[in-house]
Write a structure and sequence with these properties.
It is a multi-pass membrane protein. The protein is an all-alpha fold. It is built from 10 helices and no strands. It is elongated and about 75 Å long.
Length: 237
């Protein structure tokens, strides 16, 4: 059977477009996004408050710079295999925890670094003015520094989320609930008869990543305070 015939047959399967069938594209897309979003939310909760506090008091500069190098050096597939091995040794659920822990570990460095950098870049005059009006330190962090740093933080979440979407696909190698990546893994298992499924799964992951990129671009625009947006517009003009 030719490649195009395999792809057509794969796409023509009525269950392929089911929201309830575990083999359906909509079902696996939701599964893919759920894993990615869960890891991102956990990473934000663990990282942003801590980085905000450190940056406000100008501490942890070495940690912030080291996070960049750590994030670049961590191999995503190696992390997945490591956590899968540990989960299997400890009797934990190997279909959930290995991939989730690997995703969180990958998202932490960019979120921490950008949050720290975004807060540090807030003009000291703005912070002093807020302090002079009676704002307490926690109010300065939440009402001044965090909003002004939000475009940089959202940009980090954007990069992290796209990396998570790609990594979930890789995680299908050790995870039965690997979202759209299951098509690629299952296709390889079929050999020459699975080329259409491999291509379809790969295209689905690419489309999902592009859609997420567009949504985060819109979110970045919405998260930018109006004053910063006007200032940036004046600079561009």
């Amino acid at each position: 059977m030719s490649f195009f015939a395999q792809l057509s047959q794969w796409l023509a399967d009525p269950n392929r477009w089911s929201w309830t069938d575990p083999a359906g594209i909509p079902f696996r897309t939701v599964q893919h996004l759920w894993f990615s979003a869960l890891a991102l939310v956990i990473s934000i909760v663990l990282t942003v408050p801590f980085a905000l506090w450190l940056a406000h008091y100008r501490r942890g500069q070495f940690l912030a710079s080291s996070a960049v190098n750590i994030g670049r050096a961590i191999p995503s597939f190696g992390l997945i295999i490591l956590f899968w091995f540990l989960a299997s040794r400890w009797g934990a659920n190997t279909d959930f925890w290995p991939l989730l822990l690997a995703l969180v570990a990958l998202a932490l460095p960019p979120l921490f670094t950008n949050t720290y950098a975004g807060v540090v870049q807030v003009e000291q005059e703005v912070v002093d003015a807020a302090r002079g009006t009676g704002y307490r330190e926690w109010q300065i962090m939440l009402r001044v520094e965090l909003p002004l740093a939000s475009p940089v933080i959202v940009a980090a979440a954007r990069v992290a989320f796209l990396q998570l979407v790609a990594t979930v696909a890789i995680g299908a190698i050790v995870n039965d609930g690997g979202g759209l990546g299951r098509y690629i893994v299952d296709g390889f298992a079929l050999g020459e008869q699975g080329h259409g499924e491999i291509f379809g799964g790969g295209v689905a992951v690419v489309i999902l990543a592009l859609v997420c990129e567009g949504l985060f671009a819109l979110l970045t625009k919405l998260a930018t305070p109006r004053g910063l947006a006007l200032q940036q517009a004046r600079r561009d003009s």
